[in-house]
Design goal:
This protein is mainly alpha-helical and 482 residues long. The protein has two domains: 349 residues, no CATH class; 126 residues, no CATH class. It is 62% helix and 6% strand. The protein is built from 23 helices and five strands. The protein has a five-stranded mixed beta sheet. Helix 1 runs parallel beside helix 6 and helix 19 packs parallel to helix 20. The protein is globular and about 85 Å long.
């Protein structure tokens, strides 16, 4: 008789492991399907080029001999040397790497936030696997997945009385994303509120951990703030409505997710230390963006997106309890996350292989690997990621992420005339088409070489007015006439 309690515990443990592993399989399959139909973010290649140069012994630089930190994630660039040394595809490596980070995030949420509740795990898995924004960001090759995992790991360590280690992790991941300071401040405030003492010792420990890398950045680059951050803050501030849309409603799915998350946060945040801190963190995270007003890129909001998924799962469970709908005893419900797989299979069938990968990145890789365009030439460009990664040339960045000296000229036209680059890698939009087709100072100096367009087009529009409006991954390459 004394063995029965142990048997029950063992059976319960096996069930928990089985449930979590099943969730992992579904998440992995959906992420891989998403990777087929979504491409790597162009900005990811900027960090990858830093990794390439670091692995080659040139230092953590984008253009050789120029000490400019044009990535907000220098720690991610250091990690990026791993696939370079292993001679494996850097973009593919980070698809797998980020999926593993997502599985780690899922485990921390299941184990510590949901307290191993199988119903919440099932609901979270459904939302985490289906959410288009979460899938898109996860396979985009950026540092957001690792940042979220480390942030949640720091939170878990904090509540397991390993506070020094928790704050040190948050200090380290500042070099993944500067937004790490937000969770650091939230936890400092929580510590102050709960102990009634200002936690100076943790602040000092974090400053000591960050001091050496920051001094290294100051000595090597002349600034502790990445040039990419400085450049992005020089642009016009986005409207409040646009910021709210980009943060909370990037895709139609979010019109369901957001109200559910708000309901779940209101109902549950005060009932758990984890949920309280996560709710405060999410609000502060979003508020920081709304106050600063930068141009919101997809991966910026990954932590906010996953936090919404957590609270939406709690909200759905709460609503079911109110309606007296039992979910835990229904095997069909526990198997329901499997339905996310055919959904993503249908998406893949509908959209096909990523057009950005096939029509832009693969073509750039092929053209430059064949030596069609000479390496170590000077390229003038706006989107510098894939171009710089595959060409190996000197990149003059019109957006000033890696080229701060470009600020001395008023516009792209002046920069091109002063620099006289070997190649122009421009958006196929109206303004640039006017430059290369109608501006005699430029049109007479360059000849059209190729077009790399998401939609597969390879020839130029007949008139500048037929060019694109707004941001479209559609580029044209022009070569300076000899």
């Amino acid at each position: 008789m004394t063995r029965f309690p142990g048997c029950r515990l063992r059976i319960s443990y096996i069930r928990r492991v089985k449930n979590f592993l099943s969730a992992c399989v579904i998440i992995v399959i959906c992420r891989l399907l998403a990777a087929y139909t979504f491409g790597t973010f162009d900005d990811a290649f900027i960090t990858y080029r830093y990794a390439q140069n670091l692995a080659a012994g040139h230092g953590l630089v984008y253009n050789l001999q120029e000490r400019v930190l044009g990535t907000t994630a220098p720690l991610f660039a250091i990690i990026g040397t791993i696939p370079v040394f292993l001679s494996v595809s850097v973009p593919k490596f980070f698809v797998v790497f980020n999926i593993l980070c997502d599985l780690g995030t899922g485990y921390l949420i299941y184990r510590h936030v949901f307290k191993r509740n199988p119903v919440l795990l099932t609901l979270f898995t459904i939302l985490f696997s289906l959410d288009p924004a979460a899938n898109r960001i996860a396979v985009g090759g950026m540092e957001a997945n690792l940042f979220l995992f480390c942030s949640l790991l720091g939170l878990v360590l904090y509540f397991h009385h390993k506070k020094f280690l928790a704050f040190i992790i948050l200090a380290v991941i500042y070099f993944l994303r500067p937004e790490a300071l937000i969770l650091f401040v939230v936890l400092m405030g929580y510590e102050w509120y709960s102990t009634k003492k200002m936690p100076w010792k943790y602040a000092v420990a974090c400053l000591l951990v960050m001091a050496l890398p920051l001094y290294g950045m100051l000595h090597y680059y002349g600034n502790i703030i990445p040039q990419s951050v400085l450049a992005k803050n020089q642009g016009p501030q986005g409207s409040f409505s646009a910021l709210v849309r980009d943060i909370f409603f990037p895709r139609p799915f979010n019109y369901f997710l957001f109200p559910m998350a708000v309901y779940g946060a209101v109902k549950m945040a005060g009932k758990s230390r984890y949920l309280t801190v996560i709710a405060c963190w999410t609000v502060c995270y979003a508020a920081a963006y709304c106050i600063q007003g930068p141009w919101i890129l997809n991966w910026y909001i990954y932590s906010i997106e996953v936090s919404q998924i957590i609270f939406a799962a709690l909200a759905i469970r709460k609503i079911c309890l109110i309606l007296r709908i039992s979910l835990s005893g229904q095997k069909i419900f526990l198997l329901s996350p499997v339905l996310a797989v055919p959904v993503w299979i249908f998406v893949c069938h509908l959209q096909g292989r990523s057009a950005v990968e096939t029509n832009i990145y693969d073509r750039l890789k092929t053209d430059f690997s064949r030596g069609r365009y000479m390496e170590k030439k000077v390229f003038f460009a706006d989107d510098i990621g894939a171009l710089g990664f595959y060409s190996g040339g000197y990149i003059y960045d019109d957006l000033m992420l890696v080229t701060p000296q470009a600020i001395q000229y008023a516009n792209a036209r002046e920069r091109i005339l002063q620099l006289s680059p070997d190649y122009l890698f421009l958006y196929t939009d109206k303004s640039y088409l006017r430059l290369v087709l109608e501006d005699s100072a430029i049109s007479g100096k360059y000849r059209f070489v190729a077009r790399y367009a998401r939609n597969g087009k390879t020839i130029l529009p007949d008139k500048a007015e037929e060019g694109n409006v707004g941001y479209v991954q559609d580029y044209m390459l022009w070569k300076r006439k000899e």
